[in-house]
Amino acid sequence: MPVESDVRLGSGVVIFHPELVNLYGCQIGDGTRIGSFVEIQKNALIGKNCKISSHSFICEGVEIEDEVFIGHGVKFINDLYPHATTTEGNLQGEADWKVLRTIVRARASIGTNATILPNVTIGRGAMIGAAAVVVANVPDHAIVIGVPGRVIGDARERERPR
Amino acid sequence: MPVESDVRLGSGVVIFHPELVNLYGCQIGDGTRIGSFVEIQKNALIGKNCKISSHSFICEGVEIEDEVFIGHGVKFINDLYPHATTTEGNLQGEADWKVLRTIVRARASIGTNATILPNVTIGRGAMIGAAAVVVANVPDHAIVIGVPGRVIGDARERERPR
Amino acid sequence: MPVESDVRLGSGVVIFHPELVNLYGCQIGDGTRIGSFVEIQKNALIGKNCKISSHSFICEGVEIEDEVFIGHGVKFINDLYPHATTTEGNLQGEADWKVLRTIVRARASIGTNATILPNVTIGRGAMIGAAAVVVANVPDHAIVIGVPGRVIGDARERERPR
To answer: Where are the strands (E) in chain A, listed by range?
Structure first.
């Protein structure tokens, strides 16, 4: 069963196809909706009333606050130098690397296929454009696009205030 | 069952693993082949004899004509400013945003991991390169690569005429 | 059953959710671990003690040596001009195109959401950055980032020697 029993689900969480996700050891806030082909790892924290779109990957070390939109195919990262094995050639285990952290503040929106490097905070109400690669902290309400991501505007000037 | 009963399937449609897709309310033309981990949303239209590769996402508002190739991980978009919630903090519903449209003309090919912004038409026989981000209309037979996508040639000069 | 009977699995291979992968006609080396929403096609070769992360796609024509890390959402390609149909409008079959090859040498690491064009060799111990697009051969131990990917350093200077 791909929603493990150790997942802490808030009230009113909607998982459209529980047989097509892989959730384990994570916490999902009240009212959050989760699409298909989504993986959320242990110790990831998701707030209330978020939308987690299909094909996204949220790893250990990621904390997502309330009312955040995670687009289709968005992927987080928690290791800058990932390896399959140790320098001695053994399978790498949990003791062989350190989980890096990422925070996404309330009401931020992360666009389709964006990639989020670790050690960053994405500010409140920020908008990350489709296919952007976030490599540094994003100020509140900033609009970030491109590879690597750069700030090109303020989300409050592009739409109704939030 | 992740192929909902409201999907209108043409004759000879091949879905390699019906238990590993998420199709609902869409129309799929005769002879089209659909890979694994594919989501196709309601009101999406797919033509005849297309190939829809694994990990792709085709949203409401997208119309794909006949004989189109959709590469692995290709993702469409129908909202330029997506949000999880309304400005009042309620879960966003269908009345809170407008579906934007995308058209892919016959015999176009969209490369692996490409991201297609909405409000565009991709022309007949056009080729979108791997990982390209399409942000504007693509002329017939144009080759587009890069982020953001730009025209670099004519597909008819790179291969046998189609 | 999405792990076909023609898959040659080494000893100690771990597939975390066999019902959420699509493996057919491929060879997986001893001790390799495979995440969810992974597709590995026929004639793909995967070495020993690799880590194949969720949402990755490994196609026919790809050979991955031992101790390689394949990040989340990584996608390989085996056709530069993919099409759904032939010039005559018939569904394209195996006789209508030629599989291009890609080699990933031992101990290389390929970052999240990277896209790997075919006809390349990624060298031993090389590191491909998140969301990079690899379009040319990568020397041993090179660090490659960007779109298109370019060499920016030597992995041996960024971490403990491997």
So the answer is: 8-9, 14-15, 22-23, 27-28, 33-34, 39-40, 45-46, 51-52, 57-58, 62-64, 69-70, 75-76, 102-104, 109-110, 115-116, 120-122, 127-128, 133-134, 142-145, 150-154
Exposed e or buried b per residue across B144-160, where buried means at least 16 C-beta atoms within 10 angstroms of its C-beta: bbbbbbeeeeebeeeee
- Comparing CA positions, the residue from B72, B70, B24 lying closest to residue B47 is B70
Considering CB atoms only, which of C20, C84, C115 is closest to B131?
A: C115
CATH code given to domain B8-81+93-157: 2.160.10.10
B133 → chain A, closest CA residue: A131
Cβ–Cβ gap C85/B73 under 8 Å:
no
Cα dihedral sign, C78-C80-C81-C86: negative
A127 neighbourhood in chain B, CB within 8 Å? 81
86-105 in B: which are within 8 Å (CB) of C?
none
- The answer to whether residue B1 scores a pLDDT higher than 70 is no
The torsion angles phi and psi of A75, rounded to 5 degrees, stand at -135, 130
Distance from CA of C25 to the nearest CA of A (A): 23
Taking the C-alpha atoms of residue B15 and residue B113, their distance in angstroms, rounded to an integer, is 21
Give domain A8-157's CATH architecture: 3 Solenoid (2.160)
pLDDT digits (tens, 9 = 90+) for B81-136: 999 999 888 898 888 889 999 999 999 999 999 999 999 999 999 999 999 999 99
Whether A85 and C73 lie within 8 Å, measured CB to CB: no
Residue A84 touches chain C, beta carbons under 8 Å: yes
How near does any CA of chain A get to the CA of B66, in Å? 25
The ipTM (two decimal places) reads 0.95
Q: Which residue of B has its CA nearest to C86?
A: B162
The CA–CA distances, whole Å, from B39 to A90, B98, B112 equal 37, 20, 16
Alpha-carbon distance of A19 to A36, in angstroms, equals 9
pLDDT band at B162 (very low <50, low <70, confident <90, very high): very low
Q: What is the mean pLDDT of chain C?
A: 95
Three-state SS for C96?
Answer: helix
**Would you say the C-alpha torsion B25, B26, B29, B33 has a positive or negative sign?**
negative
The predicted structure's pLDDT at residue A158: 78
Gap from C37 CA to chain A (nearest CA, Å): 7
Residues of A with CB below 8 A from C160's CB?
87
pTM, two decimal places: 0.96
Cα–Cα dist B138/A72, whole Å = 23
Residues of A whose CB is below 8 A from C68: 84
CATH of C8-79+96-157, one of 1.10.10.10, 3.40.50.1390, 3.90.1150.10, 2.160.10.10: 2.160.10.10
